[in-house]
Write a structure and sequence with these properties.
mainly beta; Jelly Rolls; 2,3-Dihydroxybiphenyl 1,2-Dioxygenase, domain 1; 2 helices; elongated
């Protein structure tokens, strides 16, 4: 008796005889079995990490997707077998494509009761920018209602930029080449460089984070080989030109913000991403708020504490409070008016450095 298990995908073919040459010569798969001998109607093939069973008969043809990093099928990307099976050939590791930003003025208020949905590892997600600016970015308010261990696996994201900002509570995460457990407290943040391996380990009860990802639709892949923590500590390592950042709120210095009437603490993210993005925490300071416009690509804000009125040229004013989010498109004149003394805003910009014209 053997413990070996083989799984097969069954496809229908309208012409098994002609498909034998296609799957063998064109797709380079190996014929493992065929029967009955006098009039074959079933054949099994293996190759490219796949085992499939071709059964001659009526039915809807199947679709195979083959990913490769080399030459395949004479460079063809879309093929159809004589029996009707569609075959799509894709790059194994295609380059990251960043969609062009579809600029819009966006306000998302917690009071609007946007639905929370259950996502990866049982975490709950709230979409802060429903339009996603045409696929250019995703902003999520994430929470884990029950504290304790998180059922996560070692994984990585194929992104251009990713921020994890702790809004409430704390969370423990392991990162590739960054030593032992890293704990984020409220006000702290991580920059997860593209494809850095990591695993969420444990979280406090009621943990909430703000996650920004570019582009909006990006792939998360599981790494079944790596074990964290890794033995080496390499703080200067770069992934696609970006370094890991663990920025702490405690002891941070505050400086004048780009808008009068406010001050900010910088998270060093613009420096460590090569200017790809910038992240600042903003609070009230001396002076009166003014009308201003910016020339960046994406400018996202999330109200963490306090209240303010967001005024926009040609728009009705929005009274914002903790949990509300907004996006201001380039060239649009706005004012952060009537800020309360406890106002605190998370601002994320792409690129990290851009011009602001105050009026």
């Amino acid at each position: 008796m053997t413990d070996e298990i083989r799984a097969e995908v069954e496809l229908t073919t309208a012409n098994l005889r002609e498909d034998l040459g296609f799957f063998g010569k064109v797709l380079g798969m190996r014929l493992d079995s065929i029967y009955p001998a006098d009039a074959p109607s079933v054949a099994t093939w293996s190759g490219h990490g796949l085992r499939l069973r071709l059964v001659e008969g009526e039915g809807t043809p199947g679709h195979i997707r083959i990913r490769t990093d080399g030459e395949f099928a004479d460079g063809q990307r879309e093929l159809t077998s004589p029996g009707g099976t569609r075959v799509t050939v894709e790059e194994l590791n295609p380059p990251l494509v960043l969609p062009q930003t579809e600029h819009a003025f966006v306000v998302r208020r917690l009071a609007d009761q946007a639905p929370w949905v259950i996502g990866r590892a049982g975490m709950m997600y709230r979409d802060l920018v429903p339009t996603r600016l045409g696929g250019a970015m995703i902003a999520s308010h994430i929470r884990i209602p029950d504290g304790g261990p998180v059922p996560d696996m070692v994984h990585y994201h194929k992104v251009g930029f990713q921020l994890i900002f702790c809004y409430r509570g704390w969370v423990d995460v392991l990162y590739e080449d960054q030593g032992d457990l890293r704990r984020l407290y409220a006000g702290d943040c991580f920059i997860q460089p593209p494809q850095i391996r990591h695993r969420v380990v444990e979280a406090s009860e009621g943990i909430e984070v703000i996650e920004i990802g570019v582009p909006a639709d990006h792939v998360t892949e599981i790494d079944h080989e790596m074990t964290l923590p890794t033995p080496d500590y390499r703080p200067e390592r770069e992934w696609d030109g970006q370094r890991f950042v663990h920025n702490l709120a405690d002891g941070a210095e505050w400086f004048p913000f780009r808008l009068p009437g406010y001050q900010a603490r910088d998270t060093t993210i613009a420096e460590n991403t090569g200017g790809v993005a910038g992240v600042q925490v903003v609070r009230r300071a001396e002076g009166e708020p003014v009308w201003a416009r910016h020339e960046g690509d994406i400018l996202f804000g999330f109200v963490m504490e306090g209240r303010m009125v967001l005024e926009g040229e040609g728009k009705e004013p929005y009274r914002l409070s903790a949990g509300d989010a907004f996006v201001i498109p380039p060239g649009m004149k706005t004012r952060w008016a009537e800020p309360t003394e406890d106002l605190e805003i998370l601002e994320v910009s792409l690129p990290g450095r851009f011009e602001t014209q105050a009026e």
